[in-house]
Amino acid sequence: MTKQTMTDIAPAAQQADRPVLELTEVGKTYGSGRDAVEAIRSVSFDVRAGEMIAIVGPSGAGKTTLLNCIVGLLSATKGAVLFEGQKVKGPPEAMAVVFQDYSRSLLPWRSVRSNVELPIRKKHKDRATVRAKADEALAAVGLSHVDRKYPWQLSGGMQQRVAIARALAYEPDILIMDEPFASLDAIVRAELEDLVLTIVRELNMTALIVTHDIDEAVYLADRVFVLTKSPTEIAEEIEVPLAKPRHQVSTKGDPRFAQLRSHIYSLITEIAAR
Ligand code: ADP
Ligand code: MG
């Protein structure tokens, strides 16, 4: 960033160049006094429109805490989060979130279809449009046949697919995901990684995913941020120059994929030993 202030730039340029998401020295301490737990020391980064960012770090690093600060469910105790130029104070309308804990993200008293349709109705008043968008998303995650069932009648993996369908169907400006594929088997996981990549690309969405899986981070992202242990900071930012669209076999077979994976693996091992 240059030292130029926003008032020095013409309004049109402000819009065009402005990152979608801007974190400036974000810190988070839970509690106070002797019970204080500093989860995030200081994290700063920008996310540009259309980028896919992966955040990796060891368990307990502060990934979920950071994500909750970004989506406005927690307020940072230091620094600021700006989304589309506005300070985040609560969950912004143009964001969709897929939580790590799928069992708490769906409404148990509503059917699968109704869970997926609910957020779409905020954007589209026309009933046929709402239905069509829900149909498309449910088909994409392979769950058209269970649309009348309730979340508690489905396996964990299926519930998480409903949560992913709901987020994609909403067509947010930014999609935020906290370890969304952690509970899924390898094949479903690969399918859903590709589904998310395809839809994010088609709709020109910006996305940020938190994961502890190094392969997943490299496969999905344009840039990977590796976090230190808690209280967390960014240990390193890694560009992923692999061609897009990605492909499960050829991308993972690219020698640069192996190099990036080893580099991040060494870095995380080194962080764990600190
Ligand atoms: P991750 O998602 O990377 O596993 P978390 O963000 O869940 O990490 O946790 C980061 C740190 O903050 C941990 O030390 C954890 O114990 C602590 N922490 C998380 N949530 C709370 C909370 N509600 N109150 C106090 N400490 C918390
Ligand atoms: Mg977590």
Automatic annotation (TrEMBL):
The entry's keywords? ATP-binding, Nucleotide-binding, Transport
- Domain of life, per UniProt, equals Bacteria
Q: By its UniProt entry, which PROSITE patterns does this protein fall under?
A: ABC_TRANSPORTER_1, ABC_TRANSPORTER_2
Spans through the membrane: none
Q: Which GO terms describe its molecular function?
A: ATP binding; ATP hydrolysis activity
InterPro entries named in the record: AAA+_ATPase, ABC_transporter-like_ATP-bd, ABC_transporter-like_CS, ABC_transporter_ATP-bind, P-loop_NTPase
Give every ABC transporter domain span. 21-254
The name this protein goes by in its record: ABC transporter ATP-binding protein
